[in-house]
Write a structure and sequence with these properties.
The complex is a heterodimer of chains A (about 120) and B (about 120). With about 120 residues, chain A is mainly beta. Helix content of chain A is about 0%, strand content about 50%. The radius of gyration of chain A is 14 Å and the shape is globular. In chain B, about 0% of the residues lie in helices and about 45% in strands. Chain B has no helices and ten strands. In chain B, the strands form two sheets. In chain B, strands 2, 4, 5, 8, 9 and 10 form a six-stranded mixed beta sheet that branches. In chain B, strands 1-3-7-6 form a four-stranded antiparallel beta sheet, with no helix packed on it. The N and C termini of chain B lie far apart (about 35 Å). Classes of the chains: A mainly beta (about 120), B mainly beta (about 120).
């Protein structure tokens, strides 16, 4: 079984400040990890993903995340927030095994609020 | 190319009526997923189709929910005798589930269902 915990349903930052959204996962098999972003009234857009290899992954819009197996974490960061980053962010995990089966298990989401 | 499309974008129905929600996946994607996004519940997996295999229906909340995928492409999610607790955004996603190919899921914009 897999699960994802996102700490903080809401995170508020000022424009230009560091963004840190926390994600911890639980998985009995090597995980694939994802961050998705959802803007109001839109579907989910993939920000970045970790599968194997380099543990620091870079995504779109200046976001990056680091897979830390020892901490079972995959926190999302961005050095400088923009107003356009205001959205809801979802961390998700799926099995990394090549079984062909890959339903995503999502965290409950973190709403990022950016103030001028 | 074209992304995942869903129709209708919004649906208001009376309690007790049946509704059908449609999903057109990305061409060539063999896997199709339905999720439900409700306030306070996050994103819940409903059903998964992979090629010609029997679907994984383990996430369907009751026997009022069913889905089919015709010709390995378009999918329809049907909710019979709708209840107010069925009000949610229903998201469809597709992916290229081939062993060795990373399986990020691409989401449609969703159908917002309101049961009055």
């Amino acid at each position: 079984a897999q699960s994802v915990t996102q700490l903080g349903s809401h995170v508020s930052v000022s424009e230009g400040a560091l963004v840190l959204l926390r994600c911890n996962y639980s998985s009995s098999v090597p995980p694939y990890l994802f961050w998705y972003v959802q803007y109001p009234n839109q579907g989910l857009q993939l920000l970045l993903k970790y599968t194997t290899g380099a543990t620091l992954v870079k995504g779109i819009n200046g976001f990056e995340a680091e897979f830390k197996k020892s901490e079972t974490s995959f926190h999302l960061t961005k050095p400088s927030a923009h107003m356009s980053d205001a959205a809801e962010y979802f961390c998700a995990v799926t099995s990394g095994e090549d079984s062909g089966y890959s339903t995503l298990t999502f965290g409950k989401g973190t709403m990022l609020l950016v103030s001028p | 190319g074209a992304g995942v499309s869903q129709s209708p974008s919004n649906k208001v129905t009376e309690k007790g009526k049946d509704v059908e929600l449609r999903c057109d996946p990305i061409s060539g994607h063999t896997a199709l997923y339905w999720y439900r996004q409700s306030l306070g519940q996050g994103l819940e997996f409903l059903i998964y189709f992979q090629g010609n295999s029997a679907p994984d229906k383990s996430g369907l909340p009751s026997d009022r929910f069913s889905a089919e995928r015709t010709g390995g492409s378009v999918s329809t999610l049907t909710i019979q005798r709708t209840q107010q607790e069925d009000s949610a955004v229903y998201l469809c996603a597709s992916s290229l589930n081939v062993v060795g190919i990373r399986r990020e899921q691409y989401f449609g914009p969703g159908t917002r269902l309101t049961v009055t």
